Amino acid sequence: MIEIIKADITHLQVDAIVNAANSSLLGGGGVDGAIHMAAGPALLDACRKLGGCHEGEVKVTPGFDLPAKMVLHTVGPQWQGGEAGESGILTRCYENCLQMGLSEGARTIAFPAISTGVYGYPKRQAAVIALSTMQPYEDSYDKIFVCCFSDADMWIYQKAMASLELE
Ligand code: ADP
After folding, report:
1. Does the CB atom of residue 17 touch ligand 1 within 6 A?
2. Domains of the chain, start order
3. Which residue out of 32, 45, 139, 153 is catalytically annotated?
4. What is the chain's Cα-based Rg?
5. pTM of this prediction?
6. Which of 10, 30, 44, 88 has the least C-beta neighbours within 10 A?
7. Is 115 in the pocket of ligand 1 (CB under 6 A)?
8. Using one digit for the tens of pLDDT, what is the confidence trace for 82-119?
9. Hey, what's the torsion of the CAs at 31, 149, 69, 91, to 10 degrees?
10. What residues have CB less than 8 Å from 162, skipping those under 6 apart?
11. 56 lines ligand 1 (CB under 6 A)
């Protein structure tokens, strides 16, 4: 089941949270900064050993001081106007995280709105990609959380969900 919630993803007690990282995996701002802050310095040490991550791909670490057991670090596309393969890369982020979560034994997983902060992906389009990529995995998890950080994002996801349900 997919559940849209408003929360700080670093507070969630789930098997896996997804980090919208940058390709160095060495920390950044936004959700990445918040996750590193909450997980403690051991997360950065673990990330240093991973050798970065390409766009659309995913690397796993433990959650360290987070309530979440593991962190799936994925690198979303930087929005360049929509003609540079951004939608395919964003789809692969969600798909690869969902696959990796399953292979790591996760039953609950929480996603932030990948690429919609500093990377500038239009939020509504990103929400449709996120939800439609999650839908085939609904029965493979106990719960897939869409973790919104604002009321505005909640509204965007709820509308996107409603429009997908009408299809
Ligand atoms: P990107 O570089 O992929 O755009 P950002 O971290 O800038 O990543 O933003 C991605 C999304 O994460 C944004 O919608 C932002 O509001 C949200 N976000 C920021 N901090 C948190 C947090 N602590 N928990 C959940 N979502 C967050």
Report:
1. no
2. 2-166 (3.40.220.10)
3. 32
4. 14
5. 0.98
6. 88
7. yes
8. 999 999 999 999 999 999 999 999 999 999 999 999 99
9. -80
10. none
11. no
